[in-house]
Write a structure and sequence with these properties.
Length: 273
Amino acid sequence: MQYKTEEEFLKNYDPNKFERLSMTTDIILISVSSSKQDNYRKTSKKKMSILLAKRDDYPYKGMWCLPGGFLKPKEETLEECAKRVLKTETGLSNIYLEQLYTFDDINRDPRMRVISSSYIALVDKNRLDQKISNNASWFDITLYEEKDNSVFITLDNGDVSFSIELEKKLKEKTTDRYKFSTKKNDYLAFDHPIVILTGLERLRNKLNYTDIVFNMMPEYFTLGDLQQVYEVILNKKLLAPAFRRIIADKVEKTEKVKTGEGHRPSVLYRYRR
């Protein structure tokens, strides 16, 4: 049927003409923070952590997942949904948030066709004022990649520890893009192992050409602390002289010093905005 005006078309439009799907947001909240030291003379060692929530309903009841929730299509944008979910499930707000990727595998959710727009959120968890919800927990995360493109991720919150295995295949050589698939996973719900690995890869890449890392840093920090954060994210040691050349234009020296850790006071720097 041909319509003469858009108003006429909309008046006769049948919204049930097309199949429907649901939309969610899933958030990988990442922190690189100092772990507690028994000996005050030792330099605090930094670890990377992500926030997971334990599911209390089916599907995947009892398994861990990223904080996430369904979009209210007539009430909010995807970013508003992500902020609402983060606040509701973790109690956190006013932290760095950016869109990561859209995950649209046909069978990623056993209930129905669900597409997820995932987000990265960054924070220093040791400096949070808000308390996370009872079903959420911070997991220290370590990543190990073998030469056969197998990737092993270990997650540990002090009470629960488990590993997942994924496969990393080159998708586009010209853009250095990879496709990830899950090989072994008994603990994480949905396709969240892939979401997590995608988020960690994105964070590593952005470290090279953006100032994203400073969203994890306190206002004042030592160059040693900043280098540790880079090393934890990149999963490799960096030479101090080379590192300082890389960040020379990103930081500025202050008159403050860090004391009370059993070694010489260290000059504090801050992000040069």
